[in-house]
Amino acid sequence: MRFAFGDAWQSRNATYRTDPSALSASLNDPQTRILPIWRGKPHLGGDGLSWATVTDPILAHARQPYLYLGQDGNGDVFAADISGWEPDVLDRAALAMFTDTSIQIHPDAPKGAYFGELRLAMMQLPRIEAAFAATARALFNWHRTHRFCSACGQPTQNAASGWERVCTTCAAKHFPRTDPVVIMLVTHGNSLLLGRSHGWPERMYSALAGFIEPGETLEAAVAREVSEETGIQVRDIRYMASQPWPFPNSLMFGCIAQAQNTDITLDDELEDAQWLSREEVLLAWTGAHPSVLPARKGSIAHHMIGQWLAGRV
């Protein structure tokens, strides 16, 4: 059992980020690989990512500089945002869906390569490649939404090979944002509390989750979010695992807690929440439940529910 995006590659090699000569040499190295990203979608092909080199025409629309991700066993790794390319045919309605099933094929892509939704590909990718794609997606999203200085309001520019933005007026430095989120299994005897948010795929239920507020511990955030969303009070809160979640820029802290009451009072954040017995959760897990689908494979919620079903937590 595993979940996506959590693996670490050989080295992020942060010293290269501010070393122009090292970066230039790397981009002239035939072993260096560049991952094209289009509007958050990695370039996919075969059973993994579809990589490019600096001379490949698919990078003609790439925004400069490239994002330096670091090194793995095969050499240096970069990512390039080619969102400036516009496909001849584009299903904009699909792009706005919770899960975008559309694909985009660049005219200069290798045969069989395409830009696809990372949520759908995360469990098919090799573990390190999934981590590369998630990091690039999160960083490019941060660049897209932080083009102006929070100190003076003037434009910022890309710096440190994609790991900083610097204000062009006051020189303030801005660093990539990661939003901390708690995601929790709430148990009561042989039952598990699952909920669904508005706009989720039909019948999909998952663990409750919410952002950690300033001044909160993980435990305090778990108790507050569960109480706010369902009216359930919890105790015996324990940490389980964490997962980077690049949709758009979160770090998920997985926890488990015991409920002190079972009456559910929904707030407007959730469409529904319900207690499911272990047997019902197992039916959902196997796809046999008539009205509940499990959390997506590869998510930390899916992993935690599997651990609970196996009696490991």
Q: How is this structure best summarized?
A:
The chain is α+β, with helices and mostly antiparallel strands.
Mean pLDDT: 95
User: What does the largest sheet look like?
Assistant: 6 strands, mixed
Q: How does the overall form come out from the CA principal axes?
A: globular
Low-pLDDT sequence parts: none
CATH architecture of the largest domain: Alpha-Beta Complex
Question: What is the C-alpha radius of gyration, as a whole number of Å?
Answer: 21 Å
Q: Approximately how much helix is present in the residues?
A: 10-25%
Please, how many helices?
7
Structural class: alpha+beta
Number of strands: 15
Under CATH, the homologous superfamily of the largest domain reads Nucleoside Triphosphate Pyrophosphohydrolase
Examine the coordinates and then state which fold CATH places here, giving the name of the CATH topology of the largest domain. Nucleoside Triphosphate Pyrophosphohydrolase
Q: Into how many domains do the coordinates divide? A: 3
- Name of the level-1 CATH class of the largest domain: Alpha Beta
Query: In sequence order, what are the helices and strands, one letter per element?
Result: HEEEEEHEHHEEEEEEHEEEHH
What is the percentage of strand-forming residues? Answer: 25-35%
Description of the structure:
- Its cofactor is Zn(2+); Mg(2+).
- Keywords: Hydrolase, Magnesium, Metal-binding, NAD.
- It comes from Roseinatronobacter thiooxidans.
- It is an enzyme of class 3 (hydrolase).
- It is a single chain.
- With 313 residues, the chain is an alpha+beta fold.
- The protein has 3 domains: 14-138, no CATH class; 146-176, no CATH class; 179-309, Nucleoside Triphosphate Pyrophosphohydrolase.
- It contains 7 helices and 15 strands.
- The strands form 3 sheets. Strands 1, 2, 3, 4, 5 and 6 form a 6-stranded mixed beta sheet that branches.
